Amino acid sequence: MNRKILGRRYFGLAGFLAIGFTAAIGTAVTAPSAARAAATLPPVSEMMADRVMGDPKAPVTILDYSSMTCPHCAHFHTDILPKIKEAYIDTGKAKLIFRDFPFDQAALSASMLGHCAPAERYYPLTDVLFKSQSTWSRAADPTKALAQYGKLAGMSQDTIDACFANKELADAILNSRLTGQNQYKVEATPTFILNDGKVRIEGAQSFEEFSKAIDKLLK
Prior knowledge:
Layout lengths: L12 H7 L1 H4 L9 H7 L3 H4 L4 E2 L6 E7 L4 H19 L4 E7 L4 H12 L5 H10 L1 H4 L5 H11 L4 H8 L2 H18 L6 E4 L4 E4 L4 H12 L1
Parallel strand pairs: 2-3
Antiparallel strand pairs: 1-3, 2-4, 4-5
Helix pairs in contact: 3-10, 5-12, 6-7, 6-9, 6-10, 6-11, 9-10
């Protein structure tokens, strides 16, 4: 495997736990009370449900393990995914499911914001965050910068505050990442698992590479 083409490299779940969740999700946003958080957000199980792009019955499933602060992941979402969507997702041949694999504090916060958004706005918000990655990820306070994108997605400040304060959601995202590491041996982003591991694509690859892999599975 050519490590030069990979985005962000893996460091263990313990790294997040060591710095603590307060640091992991930022301290700029004042944490609301537990009652306020519960009143403004759906259950974590609902927020963590798979967001499927495309026909759920499509024969090819693409699991997209990405970190929201990974430049190669942003390249895939802004330049490669639109071509895959037009050729395979919109035609019912493939579906994509995004799986969070955060590598740093800002990525975890961005993942949390996406899951707190209404389900129908998940991919539009994810798309905007990848396109503006260089802006919010490099801000002095990434959490505060992310909040502005949450508002553009129709989320209230109360919802955003509750989202960033939700430790159960942060735990769920990190556990999902751990599942990807253990089940599919994901160690770097982006990593794409097609049809439960029949095909594996890693790093910054071209549309042609994805097309070849999907076509093989469609035969």
